[in-house]
Amino acid sequence: MKYFFYVLIFFLFSCTTDEFSEEEYIDINYEADEENLVSDLSIEAFTGEKAFGRSIPGLSNLELAFFGVGNAMFEQSWVSAPATTTSRDGLGPIFNARACATCHSNDGRGTPLLENGAVSEGFLIRLSSGNDLITGPIGIANYGGQLQDNSNLGIDKEATINVHFETITGSYSDGEAYELRKPTYTIVNENYGSLNNPKQSPRVGPQVIGLGFIDALSEASILANEDINDIDGDGISGKANYVWNVKESKSTIGKFGWKANQPTLEQQVAGAFNGDMGLTSSLFPDENCPHGVDCSKLNNGNNVNETVEVPDTQMSRIMVYQAAISVPKRRDFKTIDVLEGKQLFNDLACVTCHVNNFTTGNDYSLLTQLENITIRPYSDFLLHDMGDELADNRADFLADGNEWRTQPLWGLGLIEEVNKHTFLLHDGRARNIEEAILWHGGEAENAKNNFKKLSKEKREQLLKFLNSL
Amino acid sequence: MKFNFTKLSIVFFTSIMAISCSNNNEDEIPTEQVTKADFIENYATIASTNYADTYNTAVAMQTKISAFIAAPTETTLAEARTSWLHARDFYGQTEAYREANGPIDNEDLLATEGQINAWPLDEGYIDYVFNTTGGTVQNGLIGDTTVELTAANLIAKNEDGGADNIATGWHAIEFLLWGQDLNYDPINHTTDNYAVSGDRPYTDYTTEKFANRRATYLQVVTDLLINDLNDLNNTWAVGGAYRTTFEALDEDVALKNILNGIGFISNGEVAQERIYAAIDEGQENEHSCFSDNTNQDMWANVHGLNNIIVGSYTTESGAIISGVSLIELVNQNNATFGASLDTKASETISKLNTLLGLGKNFDEIISEENLTSGGPANDLAVALINQSHAISDAAGALGVSITVE
């Protein structure tokens, strides 16, 4: 028995580490501090549903209080106006969610629409009839740019969304079969006129960790990875989206959203307040009003002496909250499987788009602690053609229907802890990381095909690495 | 750590004796060691007694509310309100058992917290509300005669498009008994008279529009609350489903759950979400905003946490049950952290008493503070945060790691 054990050990290491001992292998392949995805501002990885949503260390007492107030705003449901709770009223008249936390449960990921009619938490559909390169997608008459499938009492919601999944089968080179589910969405019960096949794009709310660090990235640091015409000939381009920056009244680089269609964290948050919850702010002061309804006759949630439902002070609190949410440290980073997986991640060129080396800019006044920090987001925040299978065929500023922003992979392995599911990609169609890889096409076609050629052991090592993030 | 009721009683009484000994001889080093199991057991006893009190006082409230609905008068309304306030004290203490992977908010178990205590309440979704010009708007379910007011329908309405329950639970009942708190000063015509609470007239249930539907709504949400509290009581009772699960947990897992719960409720929930947000965002960002009972909510929340820290609970009948406290257990492992927890817990009670001693409503207190001004509400929040750090240190001393936000 003992003999067998030694043979087994020898066999295991001979495949993975050749002549090195386990310790030697780890020493050679582990890069100092690689587990700290946002350097010293990383936080310990807790298990359980509170793994996300924790602040960077070292906030002042007042910043911590702002963080707490912002956290409350993020968690609590907004209600229809007028209400006694003056700081939480103004929801609707049409909306997708009552709280930020509906779509980003525990600061994590939303649950996609499922075929069995189970309630989705954090799924929506963007609509458009066309696209303007400067001002962005052109909304649909009577419906605007997003389908609100919920409403206050007495107001009709815009419509209901259904989904149907078709099974796609495939197999790895070693013969192991897999199945993917391809969704088709239908919009039914339109209450404001027929929609007539609009351009539509389904979305699931992503986890909201590390957003301040992305917000703090300079344009130059993102543009450094751009290769629009694939000059280096590696088959991977990478293009920055330029989008309308409301505050600056000009186009600036897009960083946030599935198509990089929001320029700043503030505009992303204010946009979500407005589009997802029907709340006005100084960036988006106009009520999202259903067609044919005179919203000036409805009660809004403006307080005395205020003209919007989320005044600047409230907005500033949630900004501190969002910007200060840290990224958990990686787990199991000093194991052979994870280190082998890391090597595969490089060898398969995943790292070309899922870039792991940035330094934040030096002018982030919202939270100066986030300046000049080395981060490993595993994203280049650029647009890439991801192939026809994943396409939504809906243009969004400079992004065409096949292009998506590379998703940051930090926190990937903790989504299951936080949200008790592993649905991934823009509409949650992938049921786990493996399926998400298999959906990659276009510029990632080669990387995916090389993944499919790996042995099962290697594939699992790559997944272990991804789960360590 | 399975045990039966007889054994439980023995441990329970020896615990009382152990405490009375140590209290009487503070300078002596206790010879008898307390164990994690003793502390966990005491927690279970306190939790189940607290849930039983909550259920029983809520049933008494249900009786008063039914009497009010049957014969609405000033008197029956006042009695219904008093019964709500009394029952609320016991529920408020049970919030210390939240975020502990227990039945109240574990998605795989009952997870009825949202339905029981959701806040803020969508008042306009339920009944008429006052608009800014002094009139009222009737846009709630009570005024929508196309909706049949049944428990199933209200639950379904709440979950329409998301699981945020906003029209049921303690605060729905509170709203239907008190109505909105407008802070209205009829002499100066201003809205800064914090001494007044909501003052819904009993005629809302006799001559006003939708009186019958309002009564139905009140009955339905009261019955629903009773059902939910009954489930919690049963599952925590000796031999109950969760009590059995809890008693079978690995000691360190149970300890971690308990401490995670009180650490989080002390800091993230009460200090930050309830006190800081209220101070920063305005006078009606307080939980029992209709009845102006938020001070008393603070009393209940703080004492719920303290019950576990000091290992004792005062029942509705006035009896005191006690056993191994968190302080004792920590003291044995790390006297410094034990002493710190003791100090921080005492400071929290002291700051609570200062706040209550002002004799002002919570909305008035927070209207005089901001996040940098200090003041009694700020002080209580800081004490709760410090207490949570002491709980976190205590956890470390006991060999478990917890998250306090």
How would you describe the overall organization of this protein?
The complex is a heterodimer of chains A (469) and B (405). With 469 residues, chain A is α+β, with helices and mostly antiparallel strands. Chain A has 14 helices and 15 strands. Chain A is globular, with a radius of gyration of 23 Å. The relative contact order of chain A is 0.17. Chain B has helices spanning 5-24, 36-70, 74-94, 113-117, 123-126, 151-158, 170-178, 211-236, 241-248, 251-281, 294-310, 326-333, 335-357, 362-367, 376-397, and strands at residues 129-130, 136-137, 312-314, 320-322. In chain B, strand 1 (129-130) and strand 2 form a beta hairpin. In chain B, 60% of the residues lie in helices and 2% in strands. With 405 residues, chain B is an all-alpha fold. Classes of the chains: A alpha+beta (469), B mainly alpha (405). Chains A and B meet through helix 3 and helix 8 of A and helix 5, strand 1 and helix 10 of B.
